[in-house]
Amino acid sequence: xxxxxxxxxxxxxxxxxxxxxxxxxxxxxxxxxxxxxxxxxxxxxxxxxxxxxxxxxxxxxxxxxxxxxxxxxxxxxxxxxxxxxxxxxxxxxxxxxxxxxxxxxxxxxxxxxxxxxxxxxxxxxxxxxxxxxxxxxxxxxxxxxxxxxxxxxxxxxxxxxxxxxxxxxxxxxxxxxxxxxxxxxxxxxxxxxxxxxxxxxxxxxxxxxxxxxxxxxxxxxxxxxxxxxxxxxxxxxxxxxxxxxxxxxxxxxxxxxxxxxxxxxxxxxxxxxxxxxxxxxxxxxxxxxxxxxxxxxxxxxxxxxxxxxxxxxxxxxxxxxxxxxxxxxxxxxxxxxxxxxxxxxxxxxxxxxxxxxxxxxxxxxxxxxxxxxxxxxxxxxxxxxxxxxxxxxxxxxxxxxxxxxxxxxxxxxxxxxxxxxxxxxxxxxxxxxxxxxxxxxxxxxxxxxxxxxxxxxxxxxxxxxxxxxxxxxxxxxxxxxxxxxx
Amino acid sequence: xxxxxxxxxxxxxxxxxxxxxxxxxxxxxxxxxxxxxxxxxxxxxxxxxxxxxxxxxxxxxxxxxxxxxxxxxxxxxxxxxxxxxxxxxxxxxxxxxxxxxxxxxxxxxxxxxxxxxxxxxxxxxxxxxxxxxxxxxxxxxxxxxxxxxxxxxxxxxxxxxxxxxxxxxxxxxxxxxxxxxxxxxxxxxxxxxxxxxxxxxxxxxxxxxxxxxxxxxxxxxxxxxxxxxxxxxxxxxxxxxxxxxxxxxxxxxxxxxxxxxxxxxxxxxxxxxxxxxxxxxxxxxxxxxxxxxxxxxxxxxxxxxxxxxxxxxxxxxxxxxxxxxxxxxxxxxxxxxxxxxxxxxxxxxxxxxxxxxxxxxxxxxxxxxxxxxxxxxxxxxxxxxxxxxxxxxxxxxxxxxxxxxxxxxxxxxxxxxxxxxxxxxxxxxxxxxxxxxxxxxxxxxxxxxxxxx
Lengths: 486, 453
Description:
The structure holds two protein chains of two kinds.
Chain A: E1 5-11, H1 15-24, E2 31-35, E3 51-52, H2 63-82, E4 86-87, E5 91-95, H3 98-114, E6 120-123, H4 124-130, E7 138-142, E8 146-148, H5 150-163, E9 167-170, E10 174-180, E11 183-188, E12 191-200, H6 206-212, E13 221-230, H7 234-237, E14 242-244, E15 256-259, E16 265-268, E17 272-273, H8 284-297, E18 306-316, E19 329-332, E20 339-343, H9 353-365, H10 391-400, E21 407-409, E22 414-415, H11 416-423, H12 432-439, H13 451-461, E23 482-483
Parallel strand pairs in A: 1-2, 1-12, 2-9, 5-14, 12-20
Antiparallel strand pairs in A: 3-8, 4-8, 5-7, 6-7, 10-11, 11-12, 13-16, 13-17, 13-18, 15-16, 19-20, 21-22
Helix pairs in contact in A: 1-5, 1-9, 2-9, 11-12
Chain B: E1 2-9, H1 13-24, E2 30-33, E3 49-51, E4 60-61, H2 62-75, E5 79-81, E6 85-89, E7 94-99, E8 102-113, E9 117-119, H3 122-125, E10 135-137, H4 138-146, E11 150-151, E12 155-159, H5 163-174, E13 178-184, H6 193-200, E14 207-209, E15 211-217, E16 224-229, E17 242-245, E18 248-251, E19 255-257, H7 260-264, E20 289-291, H8 302-321, E21 346-347, E22 356-359, E23 365-366, H9 371-382, E24 385-386, E25 389-393, E26 399-404, E27 408-409, H10 413-420, E28 435-437, E29 447-449
Parallel strand pairs in B: 1-2, 1-8, 2-5, 8-20, 10-18, 12-13, 12-18, 13-14
Antiparallel strand pairs in B: 3-4, 6-7, 7-8, 9-19, 15-16, 16-17, 21-22, 22-23, 24-27, 25-26, 26-29, 28-29
C-alpha cells in the first residue's frame, strides 16, 4: 500500500461528494476526495438558492422525489449534528392567474403523492393575511421547506469526513482514470492515486469523468442561473421564500425570492442553457429581467438594496430542446465494474445529499465487505460566532481570547478570532473564498472593502503567505502582484 | 456603567473636531470611540496633499491633517479609545463597543455620530461579467497600497472619476502601474477639477466621459473590461463596445453614508442617500443624538467635515447643559471647481477652488483669485513643479507617508517615486516633518516624514 492508495475515491467536493465521503467513514475504509478547485462547495453546491426543498416539484416515483422528501425529513437533525445554520421557514408558491391556481392544485396533489406534509392552498385573502406585501391571487404553502447555509453545510460534511479520516485532495483535477487489477489508477494533478472503487460526483464535469472510463453516453448540459443578493432586509420584509407557480419550459423553479439564513434576500435564478460549464458570468439582460420579475412578486423592492450578484450552473441531463428534468442517474456502471456514477445531480441534490450518499453506500455494499467503524464521530463543531452570543458570553470569549474583541468585518460583525479559525480550517483551504464562506466575511454591503485589506494583512503577516500567494479562489486568481515597496 | 457628557462614534476628522467642539462648548467629559488602531479615519490612507487649505491655510497630506486634528482633540482633554468597534446604540444613548480588553458600555448625555461613509461597490452597481480577482473599490486599493504595502495590479482601468479614483490614478502611476484610462458615466468628471488636472492630465491618462464598463472578462484574475459609450439616457450604445485588456479595475463610483449604528437607535435616514436626516442644529430624529460629516451627507473636503464636526460637538455639549443650540455652518463653499480643465487655461492646483488662470501673450495673468494663482500659472508655463507624495518602507515592513519638502519638476515625479521604492526609511521613532533623506534627487528637495511613526 502506498501513500495514495484508497478503498474508495470520491471525485468532486460538492455537497454530495462530501456527504458520500462522510457516510463511508462509518465503515473501516480508506477514503479520499479529489476536487479540482481549491475548496469544497466550489460548484453548484455553493451557488444555489440555499433552500431545503420539500419534494412536491418532482415526478412521483422518481428518485428525485423520493430522495428529496427523505432528505428534507432528516435535514434538521443533520444540521444539528454538524452545527450548520438551518431554519424551517416554510415557503409560498404564488399564483397570478387561474391557470397558476390550477398548476398549484396539481402540484399539491403531486406533493402529497410524494409524501410531502402539510401542503395547503391559500385563497387571496388568506395570502394577504399571511404576507400582505406579496402580490398574487392565491398561493400554495409548504411548511416543510427550510433555508440553510449551503457553504457551511458542505464544509461541515467535509470537515467531519476529514475528522473521521478522509483525505482531501484540493486543487487536484482528474486527468485520467484507468481501470486495472479490479480497481482504478487515477491521475490527479501531479499524483497517481489508486482506489478499489471510484465514485463520480463531479457535477458539471460528471460526463467528462465518465468518459475517462469509456462511458461516452452521458452528456451534461450546463444551465446557468443568475442571482442578485440584497442587503439584510429579509427579517423585516419576508419571513419565507416565495416562488411563482412553475411554468412549463426549461427546468428551473422560476425567479423567486428567498430570505437567507443570514438575513439577506436573494433574487433568482434565471435559467439559460450555456456551452461553457464554468462561465458563471452575470449578463445585463438577465440582471434587468431578474429585478423586474422579483418586483412582481414583491412590489416595493428597490435596486439600491442590491449588494451583489452570483451565478450557479445546473448540471442538467435534459437537453436544451427538451427542457424539464431528467431523474438523478445513480448506479454502478455494468460496463465499468467498481465505478459508481452519479450524473445529473441538479436541484434537489443538496436536499437529497444524505439519502444520495446512503444509496451510494448501499451500492458499494453489494461488492465490498463493509465493517463498521467504531470510532466514527458524527458530530462537528463550527466556528463560534461572536455576533450570535449573549453579551455575557461575548465578554467571556474576549477574556479568554482578545482576538474575539477585534471586529474585522464591520458589515457582519466578525472578529479576528473567527477569521483565524477559518484560516486554520481542517481542510487546509487558504483562499479568500474559503475564509469568506467559513467566517462569512466580505459578504456584506461593503463587499469586503473594509475587511479584505485586514484579512490580506493577516495572511501575509501572521500566516507567512507571500503577497502573490493570496488568491481569491486559488491558482491564478491572485489578488496582488507583489509589494508596493520591495 | 460609566457616563460621559458626550460620546462620539468615530475618530476621523468629524469625530475629532466634535470632541474639541464638545469640550469648548462646556462638556465636562468627552469620549471618542474609534474602531481603528489610531485616530484620523480615512485620512491615514490619503497620503496625498491638498488637505487643510480651508481650515489651516496650509497644504497638508491626509496623515498630517489627521495628526493635527488628533492633537487638537487630545489638547482639550477628550478621552480617546481606539480599537473600539461600536456595535450598539440605544435611543436613550447607551453605547456598546467591542474592544480587545472586553465589551465597553457607556451612557452619554449626548451622542455625535461621525461614522463616515463606505464606497459603492461592483455589487451595488451590478456590473455584468465574471467575478475574477483584481476588482477593487478605489479606497480599498488605496488602503492596500498605502497602508498594507500590497500592490493591487499593473494594468489598470478606473471606473468613475470621483476624487479617490483620480487620486489613485496618480498613485498607481507613481508606483509603476499603467493606468489605461478613467471611464465616467456622466458627461462631467465627479472629482475636483484640480484633481483631473494633477492626477490625469499630468500623466496623460485619458478620461472617457459618458462611458462605462459593461462586462468583465477573466475567470481567475481580471483579463479585460468591456467599455461602452452611453447615450443621453445613460444606456450603452450598441456597437460602441470595445475590450481593454487589463488586470485591474478600480471603482470610484460614489460613497454611501455609513449608518447601521444610527438605524439601531431608530434614527431616520434619507432613503435616497442613506444619510442621517438632521435639523439645522445637526440633531437627528432622536433627541440628543447628533450627526456630522460623511455619515450625514457625503462632503468634498475634510475641512468641511471638521467644521461640521466642531458644530455638532458644540451642540451636543449645549444639549447636555440645556443651552440653546446653534445653527450649523454652511456645508460647503462655492470655492470648489468641478469640471474639465479648459484648453488655453491653467487649472490652479494650489487649492480646491481650482481657478482657471490664463496667461496672455503680453504676460498679463487673469482668472486667478489670489496672488499665488498668478505665481503658479507663470511657473506652470516656465517649468511645471509638483510636490511628490508617496511612502517609504520602514525596517519593520510598515509604510511611512512622506513628501518632498518643496515642489520638484513635474517630469521628474515618476523617476523620483521609482527611486523611493527601494529606499528604506531609518529605524526608530520618526516625527512628522523630520528630514529623512537630504536632497536625494539632487533637485534641492528633501524627503520628509508626512506622518508620525
